[in-house]
Amino acid sequence: MKINRYIDHTLLKPTATLNDIEQLCNEAITHNFFSVCVHSCHIVFAKKCLQHTTSVHVCSVIGFPLGAMSTNAKVAELTQAKEDGADEFDMVMNIGWLKSGKDELILEEIKQLKLAAGNKVLKVIIETCYLTHEEKAKASELAVKAGADFVKTSTGFGSGGATLEDIAIMKNAVNGKAKLKASGGIRDYETAQQYIDVGVSRLGTSNGIAIITGTASKNTY
User: Given this model, what pLDDT does residue 215 score?
Assistant: First the structure.
């Protein structure tokens, strides 16, 4: 599979305008990226921009970027996002609960979100930069146990992004029962290919064009 089909072409800046979202979608069409990843308020507009293509999907973030809102709020956001036409959902795990040992709360939340997502893809962001190696493994195991389709490294808004070490920990923890998404700080072809080579199925990045063309990018996500 060509590297462009691994890419969730991402724009999650709070200042993103509708013109920016339209440009994101046009770029995704031009380069045949797997999806655009946007905030839930932009789903309907993104679907309209992509109405003449079936190869570019719409991914929406849920509970982004902190993951600290109520489970009911996350479920409501995902339910509305699904009604608006999103194809995939990247939810943020409540890492405060993880660090408090509230495994059952995390399991129940992810289960409810997967139930709401139905047959659509649910990815769980575990924000690895704030976790110990043991917590990264535990978070990945909980996501799989709750029925998530992917585990994902980062929001891009934390203190750090993806690392190959984190992917190795997550890969071992999910043991083939979920796919892996690396995000945060992937800015060039060589780095992107490294993640693919170790088993990542999706890349979250705002540097998709730079990655596939070999040009420089200043984007941080």
Answer: 78
